Amino acid sequence: MVRVFGHDAAGDRTAVRRLLGDVPQQLSADSGPTGRENVSLFARVFGVPRRERAARVAQALGAVGLTDAADRLAGTCSGGGMVRRRELAQALVSAPRLLILDEPTIGLDPIARTGVRDHITAVREATGVTVLVTTHSMDEADRYCDRVALMHRGRVRALGTPLELRQGLGERRRSEGAPATAPLPTLEDVFRIARSAMFIAIFYGIQIIWERGAGVLNRLLVTPTPRAALIIGKAFAAGVKSVVRAVVVVVIAAASSLLGRPAR
């Protein structure tokens, strides 16, 4: 069961939605209305009381640095950075407890990207809102996130603070012979290892079947490998072993048949 601040996400959807603010990956602000009108629309949709609406709209626009540009048409915004900040204001006007950002800096130039990141950080510090960000930029995750979950094919492969994940890989490398003065691995390095864990597990599963007495099991017990991968590895190795046995039997039978034929 998925719970959001104590609410069942499946059974109490309305309550959960009122706790969320969302900024999609693609730029989606309506280009017709002004920024203030766009944010006001979201305030009405999310049920902000009429008497509070104007103040909340102004507060949301101010939080992302758009007070001076609030009455400009969205279609006249210069670049994706300003459009993205309008979308942030739209998501913030309902005072969400959880702000979900789907790759908020994708497609932005370096200056706009830095500006959006800085405004997200400022909003988080000012309001205490929890921010959940998806990103393909490991540098962005390392620099701005308090906690990181690295995912591959829909599964969490590593979880912790950026420093914990980097230090963990560094300790592992030193235990394997890397010099103590080696630089700390990056989150990119951690992700590569996490992504390959499934293949490592399959390899170890094969090794356990073929080298039962070689101490491979002990190595597996200290390796963070998915159980499903181990089962796949075992099944694959067992299948290969059966095929090899069948081929050996066929070869022996063929050889016996040839040897047993009378000479002409």
Can you walk me through this structure?
By secondary structure, the protein is mainly α. It is 55% helix and 11% strand. It has eleven helices and seven strands. It has helices at residues 13-18, 35-45, 50-63, 80-92, 110-127, 138-144, 162-175, 187-195, 197-210, 216-221, 227-260; strands at residues 3-4, 7-8, 20-23, 98-102, 130-134, 148-152, 155-160. The strands form three sheets. It has a three-stranded parallel sheet with strand order 3-4-5. It has a two-stranded antiparallel ribbon with strand order 1-2. The protein has a two-stranded antiparallel sheet with strand order 6-7. Helix 5 (110-127) links the parallel strand 4 and strand 5 (130-134). Helix 3 packs antiparallel against helix 4 (80-92) and helix 4 (80-92) runs parallel beside helix 5 (110-127). It is elongated and about 100 Å long. Residues 198-225 have low confidence and may be disordered.
